[in-house]
Amino acid sequence: MRYFAGIDVGSTYTKAALLDEEGNLSGTGIRPTGFKLEAAAEETLAQALADAGGLRSEVAYVASTGYGRNQVSFRDVQATDLTAQAWGTRRFFGRTRTVLDVGGQTMKAMRLDERGKVRSFRLNDKCAAGTGAFLEKTARYLGYTIEEIGPLVEYAKHPVPISGVCAVFAESEVINHVSNGAQPADIMHGAMESLIERSVRLMKRVQMEPEFTLVGGIMRFPTMVRVMREHLGEGVNVPPEHLVQLTGAIGAAVLARRRMERRVA
C-alpha cells in the first residue's frame, strides 16, 4: 500500500492526513503545534499512520502547508495554505466558490473560480478579536475551557453585544458585562456574534458568492455554524465535525497524490 501525506503546520495545531492509492482518506492526526514544528509534523504523521494501520515506509509523497510548512524537512513539496484549503474544501464540496477559514490565530476568506483556483483572498488584521483565540480568551476569563464553549452558548437567552475592534477593547467590554451581571452564556454568545460579523465583512471583501464552505476549529461549534447560516442564507457547507480542522491537510494530501501521479506518468 502507498500513502500520500498532507501535513498542515498551523500556528495553533498541526494536522496530518493520509490518502491511499485510490484517493480515499485513510488516516488523520492532530496535536498542538508548540515550538518544535518539525517534531509536531513527525508526530501527527505517526498518528495518521497509526490510524490507517500503515508504515512510514509506505508514505510515497509528502506535501506540507501552513505557516510552518518550510520547517517540514521531509516534505517533497510545499503549498500555501490558500492552495491547500482550495483543494481540501473542493474535495468535500465540489461547487465551493467562497471559503472562510477561522483558525486559532488567523482568519482567511477566499473566492474560487469554477475550476477551484484562488481568485481573491483576504486575511484578518493582526488582532486576536478576529480569530478563535478571542473566543478562547473570553471563555478563560469566564472560567470555562474552549471545549465548553459549544455547550455554554446553547444556554444563551439574551446575547450581549461586543463591538470592540481590538481584542484589548473587546476584553474590557467582557469585563463590563460581567460586572453588570450578564450571564456567561450570553457573553460568550455575544463574543461569537462579534466574530461572525468580522467573518462576514471579510467574505464581502473577496466578493463572496455561494456555495460557501466554512472550515477551521471554530466551526466545530453548532451555534457558530447556525448563526453563520443565518447571515449567509442558502448554500453553506461544513465538513464533518471531526474533519472541519483538517481540510488544509487533506488538500495537501490531494496535491501530494497528484504530484506523484504526474511523476509516474
What does the model show?
This protein has 265 residues and is α/β, with parallel strands linked by helices. The protein folds into two domains: 1-93 and 241-265, 2-Layer Sandwich (Nucleotidyltransferase, domain 5); 94-238, ATPase, nucleotide binding domain (Nucleotidyltransferase, domain 5, 2-Layer Sandwich), CATH 3.30.420. 41% of the residues lie in helices and 20% in strands. It contains eight helices and ten strands. It has helices at residues 37-52, 81-92, 132-142, 149-153, 167-179, 184-205, 222-232, 247-264; strands spanning 3-9, 13-19, 25-32, 59-65, 77-78, 98-102, 107-112, 118-123, 212-215, 236-237. A five-stranded mixed beta sheet has the order 3-2-1-4-5. Strands 8-7-6-9-10 form a five-stranded mixed beta sheet. Helix 2 (81-92) packs across helix 8 (247-264). The longest helix is centred in the last third of the chain and has 22 residues, at 184-205. It is globular and about 65 Å long.
Keywords, separated by commas or semicolons:
Nucleotidyltransferase, domain 5, single chain, alpha/beta, five-stranded mixed beta sheet, 265 residues
**CATH structural class of the largest domain:** Alpha Beta
Tell me the number of helical segments per DSSP (H or I, 4 or more residues long): 8
CATH superfamily of the largest domain: ATPase, nucleotide binding domain
Structural class: alpha/beta
Instruction: Tell me the major beta sheet.
Output: 5 strands, mixed
User: How would you spell out the order of helices and strands?
Assistant: EEEHEEHEEEHHHHEHEH
Give the CA-CA distance, first to last residue.
19 Å
Can you list the strand order of the major beta sheet? Answer: 3-2-1-4-5
The value of Rg in angstroms is 19 Å
Number of domains: 2
Unreliable stretches: none
